[in-house]
Amino acid sequence: MAIETLTVLNLRWCKFEIPNNTPKGLRLLRTLALMKSNVTPEMIDAIFSNCIHLETLELTRCIMHGVLSINAHNHKKFKELVLYCMPNRLQIILDAPTLECYKYEGFVRILDFSKVDALKEAKLHYIQKYNWRYYDSSNMVLANMVAYTGVHVLSTTNIFLEAFKERYIEGEMRSPIFKFLNLKEFSILFKAPNLCTLYHISEFLKRSPKVEKVLIDIKEFTFEPGMLWIIHQMSYMESSNCEFNSIKEVTIDGYKNHWHELDIVEFFCGHAKSLKKLKLFMPKNIKKRARGLDYARLDYIRSRFPGVKVEV
Fold this sequence. Notes:
Elements: E1 8-12, E2 31-35, H1 41-50, E3 56-60, E4 66-71, E5 80-84, E6 89-95, E7 101-106, E8 110-115, E9 121-126, H2 138-144, E10 153-157, H3 158-162, E11 167-169, E12 172-174, E13 185-189, H4 198-206, E14 213-217, H5 227-239, E15 249-253, H6 259-271, E16 277-281, H7 295-304, E17 309-311
Parallel strand pairs: 1-2, 2-3, 3-5, 4-6, 5-7, 6-8, 7-9, 9-10, 10-13, 13-14, 14-15, 15-16, 16-17
Antiparallel strand pairs: 11-12
Organism: Brassica napus (Rape)
Protein name: (rape) hypothetical protein
InterPro entries: At1g61320/At1g61330-like, LRR_At1g61320_AtMIF1, LRR_dom_sf
């Protein structure tokens, strides 16, 4: 193998090692993807000491305990870090001034991105723990929040959104104060168990004044708003006069003709003043499709907001 010209390396179920810490060939490596491999701090240090042109590091289902610490301070091309399904990794410490894209799937973990200056895109596929009734990850989500306030593209799950619920702060019921002033595209994937409603979506978007595209993924989820929505949130939403002046396109993927989904449709049509198109995609699985569309309410929404093209 012409290892000296190797730029992309994908390995699975392998022991990855840099012999004597001086691999001539790997100095041209731009993409390294490891799957189901043992990862050690020494290996990570060797990668970033030798692969000086590395742009993307992907670790999927790799075995690593404790802290993942990456020192890419002197790297000028390291742009993307991907971490999928590494449950034994408890913390991430990252010194990577040029990192632009961070993709993560797994339990919420504490991270230190204080030395990351260029992050533009974050994909945070948080997974709920099995003992979710006794485990609230919101504090960890909030502890990491500063790292993502400057991104332009954010894709995440309802676990991220739930962290914005009101809580006691210095003796008063308040919502956490974070703003996403650069955010242009927002995607949210809903999975059960889930306490989020239209209220939580709206409250997050209020913090993101430049959002242009919104994707709500409910292919594997059906809204079941409880008493909190009926007693408090619904009346608040009905009296709300908030406006979203940047949102141009909204997509609901997994639309099943649920009444709360239509609440969301009507809300965006009424409050997103720049909205031109709202797309509703039905589930591909016929068993999950709605029995019949509520054409009466859809027609009412279309007639009330003729400037918005509602597509089913």
